[in-house]
Amino acid sequence: MPGKDAPFHAAEPKTKLLRMPHRSSIAGQLPGIPAVGPVPELPVADVVKMPPRPAGREPLRVDIVGGGPVGLSFACTLKAMMGDQVAVRIFDRRWVQAGGRVRWRDRGEGNVRREQVVTLQSNVWSGLPNKVQRALFVPGRYGEMWPLGPDSPADKGRPRNVKIRWIEDCLIDMAQDVYGIEMVPEAYTAPASWDGTQVLAIADGARSTTREGLKEHFGTPDREFYSIKGKPLEEIVLGIRVKSYIPDEHTVPLTVSQNRYLFNSLGGGFINMRLSAEEASEIVSIGENGPVECIQRYACTMRPDNGRFVCDRHKAVFKPSIDKLSFLWPRIQEGVRFFGASPQDLLGLTSFKLGMQQHSRFTAQLAPNTFGFLIGDAANSLHFWPGRGLNTGVKSAQSLAGALRERWQGRQFRSSDFAAHEGLMQQLQYREKSRAWTVMVMPDDNGLPHGIEQRVRDGLEGPFDRPALTNELWTRMRGIKERLSSRMGNLPDDEWYLSKINGLHIKTLKIMVETGPWITREIGGDEVSVNVEFPQSALIPRSMLPGASLVG
Asked: Could you say which residues of the chain have pLDDT below 50?
């Protein structure tokens, strides 16, 4: 049985701030206005004075592959930093042209929108352009359920939960209406010649076809790097979308005290359930003529339909929802009840296959005048349990935007221009994948792998001493609650958490105990952060900015 609960954060957490080298600064370009860092909670001017593009100089031309949150945040950040000194195009086949605008395709047009809630650390969200922050973080569109920590220091604020769909909707509008970015609603095809494009940013996901097509430049990712006994380690996770009636913050000790279920919420969200191989084998979809490749291969979303869960696309039924002999289905319902919902509040099911691979490089010269860059999941796809995926992706976008702004002089780039950015990407890879790998292998007290597979099996085997198991889990929750009290809002009393434990089936209770608390001491510590600098006009009256361009 696992030992004592580890601290939620290491003592005196710190952020390692890695600064990009600067060749110039706009400090002093506006009389009496010092260059200061962004202060998200203070009012800012609606316009920013950009250094004018020198006469005769062509703008830096940037193509972005992938218009998800990372690709869009990179585009908006770059335009906020460089204004008319950069021309940006984004390609994404999940978009469609409608009424003179580009929008996301919907389910009827073959695109299933993501509904997950993601957590942005304050070191990350405070580095977004001020206009993006104001548009994203409006009342009702974000929440703060997680505590302060190394990547969310007190001077910047708590992490913020946002629905990924809202991020995508907000940024696609900002890109068009505020930053004037060219949106191309089609798949990207590499040109026969790179003439005219100085930068290609690849942000089309973990299974990037663009990266694969350019592997002679970037190399082939190494899946063997994250292996046990020569076999790449993969994990199947079930995503359970639910309504929620409990204040989001109240669920944090429930989540952090065990590694079976993770609930990330914004008035509802996804309970992510880690599975054993036996449980994962039950993720099967049944059609009229037998099994259908659906949720188990394409990660389709199964939605409730008269007591069953059905895929809109394949019209297949999630087998455990109709199988009275299923072991998995009652365990799904246990997780739903644990977080204060009922089986009627279950809105959807999907699955994820998680693994990692090591990249040798993130920057490559594609042609004499063209450099390519991997960002987002195309660069670092992670196990989501530490909650780092989107944060790592946005950091990579912020770093690249800063490097381009600092190094663009209207002439051909050199590989040395991106040494600092490539170094930061390598640091991100080491920091985040080391953290994620530790979560995947779940080492025991002797440092040996003791992953979720074995821990679930241990939880299903007797003996089952309910008083001892209850005391173990309740002790963890009380300790976590006490440690978090100074970094969060008010939490329920201890008896409320005990009632949640008492409602668990004995085998679910033992699985939770066997999976152990979050290993925050082992994966905590210094964080890699990007120093983001925009042309500043904080608190500058409009009268001081004649002819200012609408960026920022």
From this structure: 1-48, 537-552
User: Tokens 């089986």 map to which residue?
Assistant: 343
Q: What's the rounded Cα separation, in Å, for the pair 523 and 444?
A: 14
Residue type, 327: F
Torsion-angle region of 174 (φ positive above 0: left; ψ -120 to 50: alpha; else: beta): alpha
* C-alpha separations of 231 from 25, 430, 440 in Å: 50, 21, 14
Output the pLDDT for position 93. Answer: 96
Give the Cα separation of 235 and 128 in Å (integer).
Answer: 32
- The C-alpha atoms of residue 526 and residue 10 are separated, in whole angstroms, by 10
Nearest to residue 337, comparing CAs of 466, 496, 504, 473? 504
Residue 4 three-state SS: coil
pLDDT of residue 31: 31
* DSSP letters for 84-101: GGEEEEEE-TTEEEETTE
Q: Which helix (H) or strand (E) covers residue 360, if one does?
A: none
**pLDDT given at position 237:** 93
Asked if 381 contacts 221 with a C-beta cutoff of 8 angstroms, the reply is no
Signed CA dihedral, 375, 148, 552, 402: sign only: negative
Which phi-psi region, left, alpha or beta, contains residue 235 (left: φ > 0; alpha: ψ -120 to 50)? beta
The pLDDT of residue 25 is 32
User: Would you give the DSSP letter of residue 225?
Assistant: G
* Cβ pair 432, 388 in contact under 8 A: yes
Can you read off the two tokens belonging to residue 75?
């585009």
Q: What is the pLDDT of residue 385?
A: 63
